[in-house]
C-alpha cells in the first residue's frame, strides 16, 4: 500500500519544499491483526530521496547553464580574434590599416561588422570569421575623413562635441551650411553603429548648430535637428 501524507523532513530542506511524504508500506506473511487488519512489516519514507533528486537536478541544470555561457563566450572570443586578424591582414584601396575592430551580430557567431581606419578614410564591411573572409559580399563602404575647418573645430570644442568624441571609437563629422538662421550644422556619427543594411541615420548621432561667428546655438543627440 502507498500512503501520501503532508509532513516535514528534518534531513533535507528540498524534500520539505516538496511537501508530500510518500510512505511505502509493505505487507506480507500469514499473520493478521486481531481486528482483521494486516500488520505492516516495514514502512519507509522516500521524501529524503525525492528531495536529493530534486537538489541534484537543480545543481545539474545550473552547471549546464553556466557551462553553456562559458562555451558561448569562448567561441565568441575566438571568432572575434579571427575577424580582427583578418581585417588587419589586408590593405584597403592601397592603404595600410591603422586600427581595426569587429562587432558581433545578434545571432550568427561567425558574422561580424568590421570597421577599419586608415590615414585618409574609414572602411566598413562584413566579415565571415569561419573562413575567415573580409567583405564576402563585396559591399565595403569607404568614408573619407572630412577636412578640418574652423567650423568643425568649433563644433568639436563645444561641450557636446567633447563628450561625444570622448565616447566614440570611430567618430566622423558631416557639415551642413544653413540659411535660416545663417550658420552651420555639424553632425557627429560613430561608425561602430553604421551597420550595413541600416536604413536612415544612426540613432546614436549628435549635432551642434553654430552661427556665422561660430558661436554654439544648439546641441542635441540624434540626427534630426530638434524643433
Summarize the structure.
The chain is an alpha+beta fold.
Q: Into how many domains do the coordinates divide?
A: 3
Strand count, sense and closure of the main sheet? Answer: 5 strands, antiparallel
Number of helices: 4
How many strand elements? Answer: 12
Query: Alpha-carbon distance between the termini?
Result: 80 Å
Specify the helix fraction band.
25-40%
Uncertain segments are: 1-30, 35-44
In one word, what is the shape? elongated
> Overall mean pLDDT score?
82
SSE topology:
Elements: E1 2-6, H1 13-18, E2 20-26, E3 42-45, H2 47-88, E4 99-104, E5 111-117, E6 121-128, E7 133-134, E8 141-144, H3 150-157, H4 159-167, E9 171-178, E10 183-190, E11 206-211, E12 216-221
Antiparallel strand pairs: 1-2, 2-3, 4-5, 5-6, 6-7, 6-8, 9-10, 10-11, 11-12
Descriptive keywords:
29% helix; 4 helices; disordered N terminus; 4-stranded antiparallel beta sheet; 3 domains; 5-stranded antiparallel beta sheet; alpha+beta; single chain; 227 residues
Could you characterize what this model shows?
By secondary structure, this protein is an alpha+beta fold. The protein folds into three domains: 2-57, no CATH class; 73-142; 146-221, no CATH class. Helix content is 29%, strand content 31%. The protein has four helices and twelve strands. It has helices spanning 13-18, 47-88, 150-157, 159-167; strands at residues 2-6, 20-26, 42-45, 99-104, 111-117, 121-128, 133-134, 141-144, 171-178, 183-190, 206-211, 216-221. Strands 4, 5, 6, 7 and 8 form a five-stranded antiparallel beta sheet that branches. Strands 9-10-11-12 form a four-stranded antiparallel beta sheet. A three-stranded antiparallel beta sheet has the order 1-2-3. It starts with a strand and ends in a 6-residue tail after the last strand. The model is unreliable at 1-30 and 35-44 (pLDDT under 50).
Amino acid at each position: 500500500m502507498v500512503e501520501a501524507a503532508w509532513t516535514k523532513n528534518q534531513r533535507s530542506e528540498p524534500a520539505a519544499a516538496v511537501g508530500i511524504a510518500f510512505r511505502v508500506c509493505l505487507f506480507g506473511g500469514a499473520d493478521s491483526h486481531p481486528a482483521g487488519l494486516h500488520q505492516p512489516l516495514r514502512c519507509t519514507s522516500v521524501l529524503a530521496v525525492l528531495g536529493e533528486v530534486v537538489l541534484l537536478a537543480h545543481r545539474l541544470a545550473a552547471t549546464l547553464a553556466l557551462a553553456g555561457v562559458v562555451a558561448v563566450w569562448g567561441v565568441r572570443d575566438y571568432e572575434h580574434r579571427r575577424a580582427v586578424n583578418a581585417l588587419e591582414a589586408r590593405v584597403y584601396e592601397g592603404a595600410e590599416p591603422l586600427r581595426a575592430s569587429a562587432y558581433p551580430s545578434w545571432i550568427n557567431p561567425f558574422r561580424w561588422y568590421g570597421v577599419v581606419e586608415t590615414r585618409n578614410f574609414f572602411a566598413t564591411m562584413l566579415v565571415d570569421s569561419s573562413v575567415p573572409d573580409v567583405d564576402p559580399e563585396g559591399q565595403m563602404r569607404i568614408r573619407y575623413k572630412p577636412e578640418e575647418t574652423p567650423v568643425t573645430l568649433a563644433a568639436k570644442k563645444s561641450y557636446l562635441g567633447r563628450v561625444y568624441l570622448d565616447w566614440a571609437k570611430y567618430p566622423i563629422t558631416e557639415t551642413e551650411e544653413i540659411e535660416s538662421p545663417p550658420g552651420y550644422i555639424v553632425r557627429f556619427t560613430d561608425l561602430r553603429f553604421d551597420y550595413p543594411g541600416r536604413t536612415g541615420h544612426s540613432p546614436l548621432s549628435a549635432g551642434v548648430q553654430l552661427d556665422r561667428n561660430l558661436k554654439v546655438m544648439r546641441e542635441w543627440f540624434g540626427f534630426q535637428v530638434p524643433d
